[in-house]
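Final report, Chapter 2: Outcomes

The project's central promise was a pipeline that accepts a single protein chain and returns its three-dimensional structure in a standardized token representation, suitable for archiving and comparison. That pipeline is now operational. To close this chapter, we reproduce one record exactly as it appears in the project archive, with the input sequence first and the structure output second.
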Amino acid sequence: MTARIASLVPSLTELVVALGLGHFLVARTGFCIHPALALRDVPKVGGTKDVNLAKLRLCKPTHVLVNVDENRLETVNAIRAWGDAPGAPAPQIVVTHPTGPEDNLALIGQMTAQFGQIDGVAGRAAELLRAIRHELDLTQPAAWPERRVLYLIWREPWMTVARDTYLSRMLARVHWRTLPDQNGGPTGAARYPALSGTEPWLAHVQHVLLSSEPYAFGPALVDAARRLCPNARVRLVDGELLSWYGPRAVPGLRYLRELARAADPD
């Protein structure tokens, strides 16, 4: 199989390399930074939300990997439209949408269905599946006390995650229930609701988690988060470990258990 893969999602780029497909990558976004050495010579084609379509097209991908949350529908539709030109078929678009750590199993199956005939990919996929299943088995909600958690991804305005996002369902593996108690739907801004700071339920939050991405929260904002949730413990957390899917789910689930043990040492 001859493949020319463009990945417009950081997690998927990391997964492509983990499956031994790094030498098939012909394009990535500027946010696709792991693993750095393997991606050093792969051209960048803008960001996840502002893809440079002209530059991407020059890379002549046969497959473009996208994600429902991270890429814009108009970007995907524009790539599909390339096939309308004579003699210039559109690449195959691989649409992904994992909404919880368990979905990594289906995601890897999806990638294997696309590229499993390439030498070594099926074996690497099987190893990664075993590792993820093992970590999922070790991270069961029933083993942990329920906690009310606010996970902040942005400020001005403060923004958090709905219950049906990957992040929220990741935290639910240690019985951490994100607030507000609402779903955001399959797509759209409601999946990452903004806060006014006056919501009554903020007083009931037990833990505030300040993510390292997409907003790089640092120690200077801990006091501001305490004022937002005066009865909560505030901590900085690694957003990549908690929100990236694919191979990052393995260390991510281990990291999540460490956070839970630190919150409830007894």
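Archive annotation: The radius of gyration is 19 Å.
This record, like all others produced under the grant, will remain available to the consortium after the project formally closes.
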